[in-house]
Amino acid sequence: MPELPEVETTRRGIEPYLTGETVVDLVVRQPKLRWPIPDDLLLKVKDQRIASVERRGKYLLLHFPAGAVMIHLGMSGSLYLVAAEQPAAYHDHVDLVLSSGRALRLTDPRRFGSVLWQDKGTSHALLAKLGPEPLSDSFNAIYLTQCCKARKQAIKQFIMDSHVVVGVGNIYANEVLFSAGIHPKRQAGKISVARLSILVEEIKKVLSRAIEQGGTTLKDFVGGDGKPGYFKQELQVYGRGDQPCTVCETTLKEIRLGQRSTVYCPECQR
DNA sequence: AAAGACACCTGGGAGC
DNA sequence: TGCTCCCAGGTGTCTT
């Protein structure tokens, strides 16, 4: 489920329970995720102290003195903290057991997630080519215009490309294009600077608002049902094909773009 | 170089 | 009930 706001919400939820803790064990029940979990990961983290928990794009980075554990939640992954002795359910693939007696548990039915290692001072191939963070100043109208130049790809697929900007998944791509009044199929290179500027602002606005809401509805990452407190974003278009536009009441259109469900208002988006 | 198809997985819901 | 088919919040890699 995770798009960037969910990943950031997860980061904020787990960070207080991880920072400063020492790893006492790593239990891997299913090593076959998107990429195999490295055989030597236990050796890397055992008895090591977690210095900080950061996020880069949709990757969570648990920083250790010698490097970082990189966790990606894929399509269906989630993380939560449990008592280390709590029995694992079917899709609970990995436990990072902490000196506190708790474990950071990864559950991921579809196994598109990943748990990898990046040595200190190196840049993992999966992180090296990522575009800027959407909420940073380096993601701006000038940058996006430069990227879009002469590109014929549909703008929706373009902003979902993590080499252009990280963190814009299918739901938010739909929502953000609606807010910006841009048709999802419009060629990236044929959009005016003024409209790209609006798009940049909408991306920042929608994502930061979603993160805020995630923060306010944040539940227990400890115990309970283990479900992170995913926010309830009121969606304008995603999942609303054939329903009326919230602005003009025109029937929203649903198409497929790059094998992904795409919903837009034919009246509001040009 | 850029764009599109395909790949990796499981589960849930629709339709028969 | 049970089967088949399609869909799902990601994204790297292969093919044109």
Structural features:
zinc-finger, DNA-binding, class I DNA-(apurinic or apyrimidinic site) endonuclease activity, elongated, 2 domains, Helicase, Ruva Protein, domain 3, 270 residues, 7 helices, alpha+beta, N-terminal domain of MutM-like DNA repair proteins, four-stranded antiparallel β-sheet, hydrolase, metal-binding, DNA repair
Describe the oligomeric state of these chains in a short phrase. Answer: single chain
> What order do the helices and strands follow?
HEHEEEEEEEHHHHHEE
Q: Specify the overall morphology.
A: elongated
Instruction: State the CATH class of the largest domain.
Output: Mainly Alpha
Given helix and strand content, the structural type is alpha+beta
The percent range for strand residues is 15-25%
Ends distance: 29 Å
The total number of structural domains is 2
Number of helix segments? 7
Q: Helical residue percent?
A: 25-40%
Architecture blueprint of SSEs:
Elements lengths: L3 H15 L4 E6 L12 H5 L6 E5 L2 E6 L2 E6 L5 E6 L8 E7 L3 E6 L6 E6 L5 H4 L12 H8 L6 H5 L10 H11 L12 H24 L36 E5 L2 E5 L6
Antiparallel strand pairs: 1-6, 2-3, 3-4, 4-8, 5-7, 6-7, 9-10
The protein binds a DNA duplex (16 and 16 nucleotides) through helix 6.
How would you characterize this protein structure?
It is a single chain. The protein is of the alpha+beta class and 270 residues long. It folds into two domains: 4-126, MutM-like, N-terminal (N-terminal domain of MutM-like DNA repair proteins), CATH 3.20.190; 141-264, Helicase, Ruva Protein, domain 3. Helix content is 27%, strand content 21%. It is built from seven helices and ten strands. It has helices at residues 4-18, 41-45, 125-128, 141-148, 155-159, 170-180, 193-216, and strands at 23-28, 52-56, 59-64, 67-72, 78-83, 92-98, 102-107, 114-119, 253-257, 260-264. Strands 1-6-7-5 form a four-stranded antiparallel sheet. Helix 1 (4-18) packs across helix 7 (193-216), helix 4 (141-148) packs across helix 7 (193-216) and helix 6 (170-180) crosses helix 7. Mean pLDDT is 92; it is low at 223-231. It binds a DNA duplex (16 and 16 nucleotides) through helix 6.
